[in-house]
Amino acid sequence: MGAASVSDSMAVVAGEAQSNGSLEVLSSSLSVDTSLALPAMKPRVIELCKDIFEKWSHLDDSCFSVETVAGGITNLLLKVMVKEENGNEVSITVRLYGPNTDYVVNRARELLAIRYLSAAGFGAKLLALFGNGMVQSFINARTLTPPDMREPKLAAVIARELRKFHEVEIPGSKESQLWIDLSKFFEKASKLKFDDKQKQEKYQTISFEELQSEVSELKALTDRLGAPVVFSHNDLLSGNLMLNEEEGKLYIIDFEYGSYNYRGFDIGNHFNEYAGYDCDYSLYPSKAEQYHFFRHYLCPVAPQEVPNCDLEALYVETNSFMLASHLLWALWALIQEKMSPIDFDYLSYFFMRFNEYKRQKEGVFSSAISFLSKSRD
């Protein structure tokens, strides 16, 4: 999405704000250079905040403090603390989109989802849009780590929150976007050319015919499962989960990859994230750990009453779509290797994800085919 598209998205959200008194979204045409070090970035962030919020426009720069909250492999989150004239201290979050991420993220879809998810109590409130990011309310909580997600108590909380998330209705087509997005990623990933000779040689070892065949075979299998389509987060890694331990409240944040998708994909993708960026798939949850999650997802009020047949069905569904998660993010990584200036070895990440797909495929397919055969009997 180019600059014009970002402006169009601002206009759409601003129009919605005017028609809904409960939602006031401000905007600015300014951008912040994400390649700058934090000290050099700070005056630009302050200028942005003054441009957006009129009540802060006359404050001295010394009234603002800017610090990094989190820097993933796509976005940069900044906490801005402002000491207002009346002595109050206010905190907001400035989210800077990673350079070229609009190549793989549908910003208009994200902004539409934020409005409805925020109203349902998910994430931070959207306060403003600007050239290459957004301003949101600050969430007073810590970001989870991959080991946190496998803690039984937290896993149960995540499962219950994800169930509520999946019940939110977002306007528009209810068609799953999985195969559409995967096809778009494949189209882009299969036509890359790298200036770096070593990268190009490594890229040329990839068989896109093999990848296309795997996508087709997996789609044929998952189509037989009849998995429900829900509005999914699609990127439920530890960095997108925050916990206020004093209040015992979990927050699901950052909806840039959100779309209608198969329920099993969202859960299977979450389980893949137990491995972290190091891709240690020995940390993928065991069947017992998955069943614990499923019980709290399927029946939050009486998890122990979930029938075994329902657990088995969701197990097969989740692990079949877990394979799709590997394929999607493997192709995504190739695009990022070309487009992203972030210092991360996306090319190696592609091979780690695709190799794990191949390692898991036979067992998952066998389990799914056996389940489908029993279901017909």
Write the layout of secondary structure elements.
Layout: H1 3-19, E1 26-27, H2 38-52, E2 64-71, E3 76-83, E4 89-96, H3 107-119, E5 126-130, E6 133-137, E7 142-143, H4 146-149, H5 152-166, H6 178-189, H7 197-203, H8 208-223, E8 229-232, E9 241-244, E10 249-252, E11 259-262, H9 263-272, H10 287-298, H11 308-339, H12 346-376
Parallel strand pairs: 1-5
Antiparallel strand pairs: 2-3, 3-4, 4-6, 5-6, 7-9, 8-11, 9-10
Order of helices and strands: HEHEEEHEEEHHHHHEEEEHHHH
Query: What amount of the residues lies in strands?
Result: 5-15%
Global morphology = globular
**Which structural class do the helices and strands define?**
alpha+beta
Q: What count of helical segments does DSSP give?
A: 12
What distance lies between the first and last C-alpha atoms, to the nearest angstrom? 49 Å
Report mean pLDDT, rounded to a whole number.
92
Largest sheet: 6 strands, mixed
Given as residue ranges, the uncertain stretches (5+ residues, pLDDT < 50) are 1-22
Radius of gyration: 22 Å
Helix coverage percent of residues? 40-55%
Number of separate strands: 11
Strand order of the largest sheet: 1-5-6-4-3-2
Provide a descriptive summary of the structure in words:
One of its GO terms (cellular component) is cytoplasm. One of its GO terms (molecular function) is ethanolamine kinase activity. It holds the Pfam family Choline_kinase. This is ethanolamine kinase. Pathway: Phospholipid metabolism; phosphatidylethanolamine biosynthesis; phosphatidylethanolamine from ethanolamine: step 1/3. Mean pLDDT is 92; it is low at 1-22. Helix content is 49%, strand content 14%. It is of the alpha+beta class and 377 residues long. The chain has a 6-stranded mixed sheet, sandwiched between helices. It has a 3-stranded antiparallel sheet with strand order 7-9-10, with helices on one face. Helix 5 (152-166) crosses helix 10 (287-298), helix 6 packs parallel to helix 11 and helix 11 (308-339) packs antiparallel against helix 12.
